[in-house]
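Example 3.
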Amino acid sequence: MSIAVGAERPVAAPNVAEDLLRVEGLRVVFPTSAGGSRTVLRGIDLSVRPGEIMGLVGESGAGKTTLARSILGAPPVPGRVAGGRVVFRGRDILALPEKQLRRLRGHRLAIVVPNPRGELNPTVRIGDQIATMASVHLGLDRKAAKARALAMLRAVQIPDPERRMNAYPHELSGGMAQRAVIAIALICDPAFVISDDATSGLDVTVQAQILDLLRKLAAEHGSAMLFITRDVGITAHFCDRVAVLYNGEIMEVADRNALFLAPAHPYTLLLLAAFSHNPGLRQGWSVPASTPPSPAACIYSGRCPLAQPLCRDEKPPLAELGPGHAVRCHFPVRR
Amino acid sequence: MRILRYLLHRLAFVLPQLLGIVLVSFLLVKSIPGDPAVLMLGPTATPDAISSLRGQMGLDQPLYKQFILYVDHLLHGDLGTSWQTTRPVLDDLLQRFPATLELVTFSLVVAIVVGLWLGIASALRPNGWIGRLTDIYGLSAGALPDFWFALVLIFVFYTLAHWAPAPLGRLDIAVLAPEPVTGFMTIDTLLAGDMEAFRSAVSHLILPVLTLGLINAGPIMKMTQSSMEKMLASDASRYEVLCGIPQRLVTRHALRNALPSIVTIVSVLYGYLIGGAVLVEIVFSWGGAGQYAVQGVLNSDIYPVLGFVLFSAIFSLIVYIVVDLVYVLVDPRISY
């Protein structure tokens, strides 16, 4: 028996029609300089329900940003979507003509980016950048768009919003720039927000404020969220459900409580153990990378302390372990 | 107000800068072999006549005294006299410098329009046919000499097609030149309300402007293309795309961010072309400042050369000050 990469069934949500956004078998490849291609996302299945905050945890290089941008149909250059669908409210948006997809981006599906001072346009005033979103997507005239932008700056609790309207990005602190980017993401009342490591560059105290703000505003606007982070600790008190991404594959998806109280994938255990104060636990679950596994093998088998011969011969499917809890492992850890 | 202070600060340095430029060019010109007294008096002159003329011109004085004398005259508005035209250099330059400036300015406008358009189009689609066209164009514009291109244009549009007027100066011989006000023939003819002269001036401008414009669009296009490609691939542009901003707006913002490097290359070209247009001036008998200076160099006529250097130095300094002000307007991160 062998299972092709990316051909697994989507994670069985109890009622598929309920999903606001569903990623099905999404594959993204990057051409390499040698003329070949490198697969960065290997068939991602993920679903987000209306109003839900879905966490996505993974280490650097797991493909988090690629996933965030590919969902919006704009994978990082020079990557391209090689397969799979992104179904938003029942429509595959990746199959839409570029123009219609462009109208959804920033309007119905918005993104909060990390490192906003590098992403905001350095020569355009903050107020104008926020107002542009409203005039482009909502068709507001200049004055109305400006008024909405100001209201939005107030909502993200930027101190002295009237003055910040006329500020340039380099005149803002990191925390203020992050708030401005959140204002850009939420000004059109999107149904779905992707937060791509949005708090990674901030002080811990500012981070907490931004997280509270994000959650509060998402709830007020009725937006569902895909919350991408490197910090598994944040997901514990921020997300309703959590998915674990490793090397372009979802390793485990579960409700927050199930994931933290009964983690089943060895990699999830590694992530949690990394936060543990027990050195024995930390070392027990962390194994240095060995030879890269063959394409047929479990992608984590090279680093897995529990790997068996089967793991190197056959790739495990993302299989249901319990209600809403799926894991990609031949030998899930049970307690 | 900060800009005003910056401007004063810059202007304060203009005089010492000019003095330095005059000193260096004075020494350089003086180091060119050749004795103007010998050239002026011709092959039959007696040694006595030559040495008395040298004394008259101050050529027997030590170099530093000659320089001090020249600067002293400069400060009184006397740029010396050209022995070739026997007119004050200032009068000659006031007539010829605007001729060159008009030619170069219109050429630069053509170069900017062509260069910007091609540069942006190729940055948006580097692998499309426009991208390939611009590669070929950039290569040819860099490789073809401007005077050769000018001769080809004359051959096609004057000799064969008779669309263009003869390449002999700025106006038809039959047309009376208007009273010089700005020195720009197009503007002066309009001020005089002489439409026939205006048409003549424009028709004489077309071929030299096309020559210089199309050749110098090359570097502007290359700079536009590379900085636009960089800006379109920047995080800011990618973020705008992720936010669903229409491509036209993304491009406009990218162009604005790419503007400083484009303005830089344009300003460098502007200063360079004042002297660099000389071959084209010669081909079209333009009677501009570059031609005047080259004649001066060839005939040991030093005052036209020094006067030309002074004029183009002042012009370049003005251009660079304007460019620095443009930077401030374009990029809010720059402050002086």
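Chain B has a mean pLDDT of 90. DSSP finds 15 helices and no strands in chain B.
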